[in-house]
Task: structure prediction
Amino acid sequence: MAKKIFIGNYKGGVGKTTAVFEIGAGLTKNYGKKSFLIDLYPQCSLTTICMETSGISFVNNQ
Ligand SMILES: Nc1ncnc2c1ncn2[C@@H]1O[C@H](COP(=O)(O)OP(=O)(O)OP(=O)(O)O)[C@@H](O)[C@H]1O
Ligand SMILES: [Mg+2]
Result:
C-alpha cells in the first residue's frame, strides 16, 4: 500500500526540499522501500539534488 508524504511550509529556505530528499533516500537506503519523489517546483532543486547524488550533471549547466 503506497503512502503519500507531503512537506510544506510557507517560509522559504527552511529545508523543505532537503527533507523530502533525505526522507526519500532514507526510506530506500535504510528500509528497502521504493520512493517516488515528485518535483513540482520550477526551480528544480529536488531534481538537481537527485541528479548530483547520482553523478549526473546538467549539460551546459542548463
Ligand atoms: N538540517 C539542515 N541543516 C543544515 N542546513 C540545512 C538543513 N536542511 C537544509 N539545509 C540547507 O538550507 C538551505 C535551504 O534548504 P532547502 O533548499 O531544502 O530549503 P527549501 O525550504 O526547500 O527552500 P525553498 O523555499 O527555496 O524551496 C540549503 O542550502 C540546504 O543545504
Ligand atoms: Mg525547495
